[in-house]
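Deliverable D5.2: sample structural annotation.
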Amino acid sequence: MNSTQKKRLGLIAGGLIICGAAAALVFNAFEENLVFFFSPSQVAAHEAPEGRAFRIGGFVQEGSVQRQKDGVTVRFEVTDTAHTVPVTYKGSLPDLFKEGKGVVAQGKLQNGVFVADQVLAKHDENYMPPEAEKAVQDAHKKARAMKE
C-alpha cells in the first residue's frame, strides 16, 4: 500500500467516524425530546417513567381543582374513570380548562404527583386526543370486565 492509498483510507475512516458521531448526537437529541403519552391507569400500573417527561391525558376530576394562595399554582386530578393521578401546575390555565372536560398535561412524575409544565384543554365539544380517547375506552373495558 503506497502513501496515497494510506491517506485516502485515513480520510475515509475519519469521515466515517465524523458521520457516526453526528448520527449518534442526532439520535440522542431525538430520544431526549421524544414525549410519550400515558393514561392514569398506565401511571397507576407504574408503566410511566419516573422523573422523565411524558404526557398524561383524560378528564379533569369533578371537584378536584384547587387554586393555591399564591394565585399561580393549581392542583387537580386527571382521571380515565378507572384511576386518577394528582397534578400540580404553575401558570395560567387554558380558557377551556374545566372540571369534567378533557385535558392533556405534559410534565414529569415526582413522588406519585404529576408536575406539569404545560396543560392543554380540548378545543371543542367533540374533540379528544386519540390517545386519551383510547385510554378512557380501555379503562371502561377493564372496569366492565372486573365487574363481570
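Annotation notes: The CA atoms of residues 107 and 148 lie 36 Å apart. The longest helix spans residues 3-33.
The annotation will be released with the project's public dataset once the embargo ends.
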